[in-house]
Structure formats: C-alpha cells, structure tokens
C-alpha cells in the first residue's frame, strides 16, 4: 500500500494483516481525515505481531496508576504516507514484579552477565 488517503485504504491495511493470520484488534480508532489510526490489542504476542507486520520503529512504554491498579502501556508507532499508525497494549502489572516494569519487552530474556 502506498497511500492511506481514504478510510477504505486504512481499513484495508488492517484487513491485510488479519488475512495474513494476525488476530483482529479488539479496538480500532480511525481519526477523521485518515491521519491517525490506532489499534488496541489483547496481549503481548498480538502486539509484537502487529508491530512487526506494520514495521513500527518507534516504541514507548508508560507505567501509571489507574485507581489503585498499576498499568503498563506499550505503544509502537509508524508513519505511513502522513498517517500515524499506533499499536497499543495495556497490561495490569504487579509491584511484586518490578522487573516487568523496567524492561521494554518482558518476553525477551536478559543477557547473562
């Protein structure tokens, strides 16, 4: 796809991913004018699959308190033809596992020192 100028093209991008075997996002937000597309996924495996499929080079992690629950928001972003596409995963985390709060991808084992 070379351009995301229409809603149909943006939704086509998601349909292509699902057709390639990725799980459908549980929430999809497309801003008016097709300049922002946001996908919310259910688990880390889906997040990794979508960010790899879309080629998202920008990653950010935010940890915050949400009414007594600690949450970790992982966001991967890419810009395609002026449209910012983000894939977001929100996970509840425990203070008992501080390592999970400190690493970008908890599925990757740390190197032996």
Quickly describe the structure.
The chain is α+β, with helices and mostly antiparallel strands.
Structure description:
This protein has 113 residues and is an alpha+beta fold. It is built from 3 helices and 5 strands, in the order αββαβββα. The protein has helices spanning 7-19, 44-54, 98-102, and strands at 27-30, 36-40, 58-66, 69-80, 83-93. It has a 5-stranded mixed sheet with strand order 1-2-5-4-3, covered by helices on one side. β3 and β4 form a beta hairpin. The chain is elongated and about 45 Å long. The relative contact order is 0.18. The model has no long low-confidence stretch (mean pLDDT 82).
Q: What features would you highlight for this structure?
A:
single chain, 113 residues, five-stranded mixed sheet, 3 helices, elongated
Question: Layout of SSEs?
Answer:
Layout (H helix, E strand, L loop, with lengths): L6 H13 L7 E4 L5 E5 L3 H11 L3 E9 L2 E12 L2 E11 L4 H5 L11
Parallel strand pairs: 2-5
Antiparallel strand pairs: 1-2, 3-4, 4-5
């Amino acid at each position: 796809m070379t351009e995301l100028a229409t809603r149909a093209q943006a939704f086509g991008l998601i349909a292509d991913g699902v057709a390639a075997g990725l799980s459908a996002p549980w929430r999809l937000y497309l801003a008016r004018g097709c300049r922002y597309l946001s996908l919310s996924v259910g688990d880390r495996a889906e997040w990794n699959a979508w960010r790899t499929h879309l080629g998202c080079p920008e990653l950010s992690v935010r940890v915050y308190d949400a009414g007594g629950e600690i949450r970790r928001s992982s966001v991967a972003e890419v810009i395609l033809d002026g449209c910012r596409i983000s894939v977001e995963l929100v996970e509840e985390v425990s203070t008992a596992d501080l390592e999970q709060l400190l690493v970008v991808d908890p599925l990757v084992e740390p190197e032996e020192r």
